[in-house]
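We close this part of the discussion by returning to an individual protein. The sequence in question and its structure tokens are set out directly beneath this paragraph:
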Amino acid sequence: MDKSYDILIIGGGPAGASAAKASAAKGAKVLLIDKKKDPGFPVQCAELITQWIFHHIDLPSRSIVQKIENLITHLPDGSCFKMRSPGFMIDRSIFDKELLIQAALKGTQISMATKAIELYPDGVLIERERKKGFINSKIIIGADGTNSIVSKWIGEPSLKKIHTIQAEVVLFEKSLDAEIFFDKLFEGGYAWFFPKGNRANIGIGITSLKFRNLSKLLNQFLGNLKNLGKLPRVEILSKTGGLIPCETRKRIYHNNILLVGDAAGHAHPITGAGIFNAIVGGEIAGRISAEAIQKGDLNHLKNYEIEWEGIFGKALAYGSTKRSFLEDNWNNSEIDFQSLIRSSWIGFKEYYKDRKGTCYGE
């Protein structure tokens, strides 16, 4: 790799790849690095995406496993509610690779198994194959996930997180419905059953205070699904887990540094969905960064915040108020738990009661 670039992107997930593609397409000299050896692996994602994502990317069909038509929400009293929610289950490892290929075809240089070590006034110290080197860059885009090192460079504290665990299991009867389950045991979060052809992603996400119980809760949930007849037997193919931010960072732009995707806290505070916002936010950050290079004016970077807030900022802000209400009242005996969930989950009309205007990014 060269030693000098217009834009250095740290992180090769959907946000970083989208930023790289957009900035390289406008003529910027771009380097994308990622500490992983293989893009999209290990998979730390429930792999459900909204259909609206295809307004922003042209993705080969081989990354799509199946369509999803509805979202079914299950409450602890046994009631369930169905809403139309078209989307797709994807193979995340293929999905991420395809996004990086698109970025490379626009001119991005990619270096996997490369770690960002330290920030300097004129660039970043990196390490690859136990060898350290220095990359000079005019602009840095942090797309390095929930525990972003780039966010620490600009003095941002750790984000509030949801801890998740997921099992990929054999699915004996195919389905077109994604299903969500609420239970008081899943504190601050929920469980999911997402069909993926002849497999399914089954997982649980809960607040950090209870995360040590995750494995036990997952085993109990798998048993419950078996009792409900959704799984005649439990055949686990793999397990994974990860962290999802459930709050937006207060500062995602500082001097010549931008944060995108989970590094910016752009996952939805209630659902945890983050791929759509990562791709849209990444595209904005990449395009604005390239324009700043062309203009020779880093002050142009402030337009990144203006644009993303205009597209999905309302959804994140509204979701944050709902999350605060949800967590504050989860164990409040004076509030009916069913009513609490109905007012705090996107599958119910009560969630939208106080919302004004159109909110994208849910």
Notes: The radius of gyration is 20 Å. The longest helix spans residues 302-329. Residues 4-44+93-159+246-316 form a domain with the FAD/NAD(P)-binding domain fold (CATH 3.50.50.60). The CA atoms of residues 119 and 227 lie 53 Å apart.
